[in-house]
Amino acid sequence: MLKRTLALAVLLTAPAVVAEPAQAAGTAIGPVTLAWADADHTKVRITWTETTPVANTVGVPNVQPLGTTTAAQPNELVVEGSSFPRTAADESQQIQVAGSDGTEALSAPFDSYVSPSSSFSLSFAAHNQLRWTLPADNAVDGTPDDPLDLPDQYSYHVDQGFDPNPFQWFDGMCTVTTTVSSTRTGVVPNPGRPFTLRVAAQNEWGQGAVAPRKVSMVPDIQVTAPGATPYGGTTTLTGHVDQSALLITGKPPLCDERRSPLAQTTLIVHQRTSPQAPWTVVGTTRTGDDGNYRAIFRNPGPREYRVVVASHIDPAGIPMFGADSQTRSVGSVTRVVSAKFIQPVVNLGTQPQAYLWVDPAGSQKAALQFKNASGAWQGVAYKTLYAGRGILAFPWNRRGTTQFRWWVPAIGAIRPTYSGVFSLTVR
Asked: 231 and 183: one domain?
């Protein structure tokens, strides 16, 4: 009885052996599918199946998380197409759906290629416009017919950035205006201010990465000209040229318009015979380090002049819109090449010979004058020139030294003039 009792006690106090339940099978995540979620192809719908609802993390493995879902939410995530990292045309990526229990699945490979814009070129077109051009894109799709493939359809976004307040420094970021083109080339007119230019190709994946480029300009050209110069002599134009460019500084970048002398730059001098006549080139000159310039050329007759900085790409690759100066009129005065006596000292009774040579060489009727005892100029005689030259012999019976000069009439648009004073001495 005692043995039975002890045996029963042992049986009652020994720990019970409980059988372990069977381990639950892991959640199976089914195919991960991709499709565009809207007609404009701006959002991507990611869907998947799973045998047991679990929380999920969705993203591009080791590159870009895209979002999460809870076990209670549908097995779906809609994200912006621009959220995906860019790939080259021959590269691909996959979407991974990872369950909270460690299971995961991948979508089919796809690319998110955007035509590169960083190499857009600039040149100046007619009518003082700046042409931008994106090179042809000959990339080959490395994942043809992937779930998100669409026909190539790009728009080209042209962003111009301006100083929001040109009259105050360090006052803000660039104010950006955007135009959209459907072609890989286009033109930007001269806005009369410096700006930044950014041209980006955009498709369903967003815009290609591209840094803006600066575009400077010549705000004005100062020019000073004489009212008239001798025909065939020299005419000198002087002036100063500034440039205006954007200074981009700081983070976030501030946008400031600054003026400075336009140094060591070629200037073109134009001329025309009337406001209705076409401009022709006289020649070129250059600015100094201080932006000042001087242009010297022959006077061919009355002309209108202007000084031009042509639109160009400078040696640093920065486009610069040029400018024209205001028009300056320079008249032309008959040039006296020589006015003298053949013999400035003669004996009483000898006829002096007054000589005249002028340009333009015409048949002007010149008048010889002398200064009388009262200090007034008085006429002696006229002489009709031949090919701009002539000698006038005349009687003169006054002893002593007398001052003379020639008056030469206008010829065409060439203005009249007086010669310099020359003297005759009679002994």
From this structure: no
Both 308 and 340 in one domain: the answer is: no
Number of domains in the chain: 4
Q: Can you give the pTM of this predicted structure? A: 0.78
Q: 161, 196 in Cβ contact below 8 A? A: yes
Give residue 30's pLDDT band: very low, low, confident or very high (50, 70, 90): confident
Pairing of strands 365-371, 400-408: antiparallel
CA neighbor of 255 nearest in space, from 173, 133, 157, 139: 173
Phi first, then psi: give them for residue 287, nearest 5 degrees: -80, 155
- Among residues 193, 217, 241, the one where a domain terminates is 217
- Residue 125 CA to chain centroid, in angstroms? 12
Q: Which domain holds residue 100?
A: 33-106
> What DSSP element (H or E) covers 5?
helix 2-13
Distances (CA, A) of 102 to 29, 55, 57, 74, 129: 10, 10, 10, 19, 60
| Burial (CB count within 10 angstroms: exposed 0-12, middle 13-18, buried 19+), residue 119 | exposed
- Rounded to 5 degrees, φ, ψ at 351 are -75, 120
Alpha carbons 299 and 415: distance in angstroms, whole number: 13
Kind of pairing between the strands at 328-333 and 228-230 = parallel
Q: What is the dihedral of CA 333, 334, 335, 340, to 10 degrees?
A: -130
365/388 Cα distance (integer angstroms): 10
pLDDT digits (tens, 9 = 90+) for 357-413: 999 999 999 999 999 999 999 999 999 999 999 999 999 999 999 999 999 999 999
Does 194 lie in the same domain as 143?
yes
Single residue among 297, 312, 333 that ends a domain in this structure = 333
Q: Are residues 238 and 297 both part of a single domain?
A: yes
DSSP class per residue in 107-142: B--B-------TT-EEEEEGGGEEEEEPPP-----S
CATH, residue 359: 2.60.40.10
